[in-house]
Amino acid sequence: MVTVSALRSALGAIGNAEAVEPGAAAPTGTGSPHVAGAAAGVGAAEAQRRRLSAAEIGQIVLEEARERERAARDYERAGHADRAGRLRREAQVLLAVLADEDRP
User: I need a labelling partner for 88 at 20 to 30 A (CA). Which of 15, 43, 74, 99 fits?
Assistant: First the structure.
């Protein structure tokens, strides 16, 4: 479950980084004649995404691991060693993914 949680969170962070600011609304008259404001055509309602490089994705995953390490230290100071341990295991999972990517 630790691995799933770490990877799910990292994928969410990558997805957030791919998001772009919404552009201007489509001009009137280009939507569906049956539903006001609806987009017509294949892919018309798809949100535009930014393409990230492998290096950018690696930085996001690394920052996710660092955030877990920082949070683990905070939990330890607060006397929650069990939560700190889980966060450290999640950080190790993310760092292991990065290490695998560095191998040829």
Answer: 15
| Rounded Cα gap, residues 24 and 103, in angstroms | 43
- Would you say 83 and 75 are in contact if contact means Cβ atoms under 8 Å apart? yes
Using CA atoms, how far residue 37 sits from 28, 46, 59, in Å, is 8, 14, 38
Asked if the structure places residue 59 within a domain, the reply is yes
CA 58 to CA 64: how far, in whole Å? Answer: 10
DSSP assignment, residue 37?
A: T
- pTM of the entire structure? 0.74
In a domain, 4, yes or no: yes
The structural domain count of the chain equals 1
Mean pLDDT of 2-23: 92
CB-side exposure of 65: number of CA atoms within 13 Å?
17
78 φ, ψ (degrees, to nearest 5) = -85, 0
